[in-house]
Write a structure and sequence with these properties.
With 110 residues, this protein is α/β, with parallel strands linked by helices. 44% of the residues lie in helices and 17% in strands.
Length: 110
C-alpha cells in the first residue's frame, strides 16, 4: 500500500487551540487521504511536551478508524532525518497508531 504524507502546519501555539484547529481542518484532510486508499503519515512541526497528548490521541483514534490502513504521526521539521523516518514507516507494515519524534529536531511552537 502507498503511504500518503500530510504535513500539518499553521496550528496555534496553545495546545488546546492547536488541537481544535487540527480537528477542524486537518482531520478532514487526513480522512480524505485515507479514502483514496493506502496508509497515512501525519507530520507535525516540533512543539513542546504539552502537545504530545492531543497529537497521540488524534493519531491513535484515526488509526483505529482507518484500520486495516495504517496511520502514524511524526514530529519533525524537514530534511533527511524526516524523509528517512517516512521511508522506514512506509515499509514497516506492523506499525500503526504511533507518534514518533524524529531525532535531531528541536522543539518549538506547534
Amino acid at each position: 500500500m502507498a503511504q500518503a504524507v500530510l504535513r500539518i502546519g499553521g496550528l496555534p501555539e496553545a495546545p488546546l487551540d492547536a488541537a481544535a484547529a487540527f480537528h477542524a481542518e486537518w482531520l478532514l484532510r487526513g480522512r480524505a487521504a485515507l479514502a483514496e486508499g493506502g496508509d497515512l503519515a501525519l507530520v507535525f512541526a516540533p512543539a513542546d511536551h504539552a502537545h504530545h497528548a492531543w497529537r497521540l490521541a488524534a493519531v491513535q483514534a484515526l488509526a483505529r478508524e482507518a484500520a486495516p490502513a495504517r496511520v502514524n504521526g511524526l514530529v519533525g521539521g524537514e530534511g533527511a532525518p524526516l524523509e528517512a523516518m517516512l521511508g522506514w514507516l512506509a515499509g514497516a507494515g506492523a506499525i500503526t497508531g504511533q507518534l514518533l519524534e524524529v531525532a535531531g529536531q528541536t522543539r518549538a511552537s506547534a
